[in-house]
């Protein structure tokens, strides 16, 4: 026991010394070469402009992507920029959440752009993503700051729905978790979102079904069961009501259009 404790302490000490040595070395190199990180205040000003939905200010403060001026996270220039952009996207997502963007909306947008980074192969593609992500968040925050932002209870309701979209959730359950009456929550939700909670839940289930039909190999029957529709015929009827197509027609139509685009 005593030996193990001493050994662990020695390992931690060696790691601490190693990091300190690497830190000193890198700081020396950065001073000599002039390679420094972007000023923190400048970054905060830019992120704040995005979170405020001030598109004009965002465009004014925006600086094109460059290989220089970033800390070195990888010897490969493209991978180095990818790492930094991943951090940037994660930060801006959290800035926007703090200013009222629905949590799951912000995180999902973040996931979409990080997925784009993952498959990008050159700096030109990364430049496009870099510019696009800020404008996308700024536009959404412009709506949030225009007075169309949801109240705290509606935001929490949306998060609960998102977390349970595949399991199913009832209005009573949501109201209980928020400490509200179903009547009050329903009235508040309809007033702010423009549809009932049940209508919104159904729209999200259909949206999830659309994505599964596009991007998975699950059969329509499996998708209907996965999304907890009472029967396959019920799933088809609800899907057709929202999209104008049966699940089978939707999948066939998507792949037909997709192949035409490729050609």
Tell me what the structure shows:
This protein has 263 residues and is mostly helical. It folds into three domains: 40-148, no CATH class; 152-188; 195-263, Arc Repressor Mutant, subunit A, CATH 1.10.10.60. Helix content is 77%, strand content 0%. The protein is built from 13 helices and no strands. Helix 4 runs antiparallel to helix 5, helix 4 runs parallel beside helix 6 (123-148) and helix 10 (197-215) packs across helix 13 (247-262). The longest helix has 32 residues, at 2-33. The radius of gyration is 24 Å and the shape is globular. The N and C termini lie far apart (68 Å). It comes from Ruminococcus albus. It holds the Pfam family HTH_18.
Kindly report how far apart the N and C termini lie. Answer: 68 Å
Strand content: under 5%
Radius of gyration over C-alpha positions, nearest whole angstrom: 24 Å
As for the number of domains, it is 3
For the residues shown, what is the average pLDDT? 81
Number of DSSP strands? Answer: 0
Give the class from helix and strand content and strand pairing.
mainly alpha
Largest sheet: none
Any low-confidence stretches, pLDDT <50, length ≥5?
none
The helix count comes to: 13
